[in-house]
Amino acid sequence: MSTVRPISNDDLRALMKKGKVTFQYKKNDGTIRTATGTLNDSLITRKSRGGQNTTKGAGYSTYFDIDKDAFRCYAESRLIGIVEA
C-alpha cells in the first residue's frame, strides 16, 4: 500500500531533477491527479518547443509527465505530496 507524504514544491523539484517522482496534486476541477514526473534532461523524451503556455503568472510549476509523454504544470498551492510505496 502506498502513502502520500507532504513535501515542499522546492523539495519536489529537486527530486525531479534527479529522476522520476510520483506525486499528487489537486486539479482545478477538484479531482486528485497522481503523476509521475521528472525534470531530469536525460529522462525527457520530448524537448520544449516554446509552445503556448496557458498558465499565466507565478505559482505554477512545469514538469515532464512520464506517462503522458508531455509537459504539464500544476498550481504549487495545490501540491499534496509524493507517493511512497
Please describe the structure with a list of short key phrases separated by commas or semicolons.
mainly beta
Describe it for me?
The protein has one helix at 9-18; strands spanning 3-5, 21-26, 32-38, 60-65, 70-75, 79-84. Helix content is 12%, strand content 40%. The chain has 1 helix and 6 strands, in the order βαβββββ. It is mostly beta strands. It has one domain. Strands 1-6-2-3-4-5 form a 6-stranded antiparallel sheet, with helices on one face.
Into which percent range does the helicity of residues fall? Answer: 10-25%
Q: What order do the helices and strands follow? A: EHEEEEE
User: How does the major sheet shape up?
Assistant: 6 strands, antiparallel
What is the general shape? globular
Helix count? 1
* Radius of gyration computed on alpha carbons: 12 Å
End-to-end CA span: 6 Å
Strand percent estimate: 35-45%
- Low-confidence segments, ≥5 residues, pLDDT <50? none
Number of strands: 6
SS-based class? mainly beta
Number of domains: 1
Strand order of the largest sheet: 1-6-2-3-4-5
What's this entry about, in short?
This protein has 85 residues and is mainly beta. Helices cover 12% and strands 40% of the residues.
Can you lay out the helices and strands and say which pair or pack?
Blueprint (H helix, E strand, L loop, with lengths): L2 E3 L3 H10 L2 E6 L5 E7 L21 E6 L4 E6 L3 E6 L1
Antiparallel strand pairs: 1-6, 2-3, 2-6, 3-4, 4-5
